[in-house]
Amino acid sequence: MGGTTNKTTRFRKYSGGERTLLGGFTDSAHLLQANKIYHISIIVHGGATSFSVDGNRFFTYADPDPLTSGYFGFRSTWSRQAITHFRLYTLSGPVMQVWNPRCKDHLYAVMQN
Q1: Which of the listed residues 2, 41, 56, 83 has the most CB atoms within 10 Å of its CB?
Q2: For the CA atoms of the chain, what is the radius of gyration?
Q3: Residue 80 vs residues 15, 47, 53, 77, 104: alpha-carbon distances, Å
Q4: Is the pTM of this model over 0.85?
Q5: Cα–Cα distance measured from residue 3 to residue 5, given in angstroms and rounded to the nearest whole number
Q6: Are residues 9 and 40 in the same domain?
Q7: Looking at the structure, do residues 61 and 90 belong to the same domain, yes or no?
Q8: Which domain holds residue 48?
């Protein structure tokens, strides 16, 4: 969200060295606003991925060849943003909290059953 000096919000799939653009926006409603906190939700389930901002769905992609292992990342090309309060969930509940040095109330890699 807000990449390329806050001119684009894009949704991509990186696989096998290819970076496929799945969708994108350039209008102000889909770009970053200064000093605003956003709630981002990324859901991956049953081969489909969705990306929502403050409860508004920006992207949904039903992948005909979904990735079943690997890594994920947040790409912020020439934009000024910080990611805090990051949580990763499975279908059964929270798996991990990642500590942010700017936010002292979060723990590093707390695994929960």
Answers
A1: 2
A2: 15
A3: 26, 31, 17, 9, 21
A4: no
A5: 6
A6: yes
A7: no
A8: 1-67
Q: How far apart are CA 34 and CA 3, in angstroms?
A: 14
Question: pLDDT tens digits, residue range 35-55?
Answer: 888 888 888 888 888 888 988
Q: What is the pLDDT of residue 92?
A: 58
Q: Coil, strand, or helix at residue 57?
A: strand
**Domain count of the fold of the chain:** 2
Catalogue the E-assigned strands of 4-55: 9-15, 18-25, 40-45, 48-53
52 and 2 part of one domain = yes
In a domain, 60, yes or no: yes
- DSSP alpha helices (H): ranges in the chain? 3-6
pLDDT, tens digit, for every residue of 17-37? Answer: 888 999 999 999 999 888 888
**Other CB atoms closer than 10 Å to residue 18's CB: what's the count?**
8
* CATH number of the domain within which 32 lies: 2.60.120.560
